[in-house]
Specification:
Length: about 325
């Protein structure tokens, strides 16, 4: 549990808790709300002594209530809850609100936070709220019946001490946390100048690397797909009926593909050499011709076939056969 060793005056109705966003503030207000409910249920509290009043209701806005189905952003959800709390609140209520005014433009969120706090103060209820806004801290110092508090924080270990200290406003410690986690001097200097003006805050700039150490990041690489065009071209067989594009004429493969993927196709009136990418199988030869069919009957003239037959049998002086080039 969280040690809540503190006392407040009887006129104090509201406490504004500030400090680093390390979880301690939220734990503190949840613990107070839980102890109050436990006491009203007759349960023993895990503490040495406690002075707790009875509350007619405990109203809370803790956590992120964003809802995409209801078109609620984080800020919208907080405001919806806050307005519902203000409609229900009375002097016997205990109100617990976390990160008041968050989720929107800081200047406007600060103004809304102060407006909500003022309504809670007017209602006379008991309330605990957490915030980061320095203007809200100023409001807590000046408003009647309101006091500031902070969660103790160890800057050396970057760990909360889970001790609520009444009467002192907390610091965000963002620069100290960033520094301890290794943010380099040039980034901290720029951040400090943006927050505090040209001179910045010099007490956080010692013993820091000047620039952020860059590490190699993964890059997106497109996988290269290696297509074996020769294999695709070799799929066409002698006698296959193919469609020739872009003319969409049909023809018969009369010479299979060479090493460049170029085939010879017999059209109705001529033979052409064409890349295999420009043809598409229409009817395979196996469906058009019987097995071991002699395709020279189709693709060669009677004279060519006769000359071929004679030259295969013996040497024929003066006889020539022309084989067309595939280039």
């Amino acid at each position: 549990c969280v040690p809540l060793d503190f006392e407040i005056g009887q006129k104090t109705r509201g406490i504004i808790i500030t400090g680093p966003n390390t979880g301690g503030k939220t734990v503190a207000i949840k613990t107070v709300g839980l102890y109050c409910l436990m006491a009203q249920c007759g349960l023993h509290l895990p503490c040495g002594e406690a002075d707790i009043c009875m509350n007619s209701q405990v109203l809370c806005d803790i956590g992120d209530g964003q809802n995409m189905t209801e078109n609620l952003s984080t800020f919208s959800a907080h405001i919806t809850n806050a307005l519902d709390i203000l409609r229900r609140v009375n002097r016997e209520s205990l109100v617990v609100m976390d990160e008041l005014g968050s989720g929107t433009d800081p200047a406007e969120g600060m103004g809304i936070a102060i407006a909500i706090l003022e309504e809670l103060r007017k209602s006379g209820c008991l309330y605990l709220v957490t915030t980061h806004y320095p203007e809200v801290k100023q409001y807590g110092e000046n408003a009647e019946g309101v006091c500031n508090a902070r969660m103790a924080f160890d800057r050396e270990t970057l760990k909360p001490k889970y001790r609520l200290e009444i009467g002192r406003a907390g610091e965000s410690c963002a620069f100290y946390i960033a520094k301890s986690l290794g943010m380099p001097a040039d980034m901290l200097r720029r951040a400090s100048q943006a927050a505090y003006g040209e001179n910045g805050s010099p007490d956080i700039m010692d013993a820091l690397p000047e620039q952020l150490e860059r590490r190699s990041a993964p890059v997106i690489q497109k996988e290269k797909i290696h297509k074996n065009h020769q294999t695709e071209a070799d799929a066409y067989r002698l006698g296959d009926c193919v469609m020739v594009y872009p003319d969409k004429k049909t023809g018969i493969v009369c010479r299979t593909a060479n090493e460049k993927g170029v085939l010879q196709v017999q059209l109705q009136d001529k033979k052409i050499w064409i890349n295999h990418k420009r043809i598409k199988l229409h009817v395979p030869a196996s469906e058009l011709y019987p097995e071991d069919y002699d395709f020279s009957i189709i693709f060669e003239s009677v004279e060519e076939r006769k000359a071929k037959h004679q030259m295969e049998r013996k040497y024929c002086e003066g006889m020539e056969r022309t084989i067309p080039s595939t280039d």
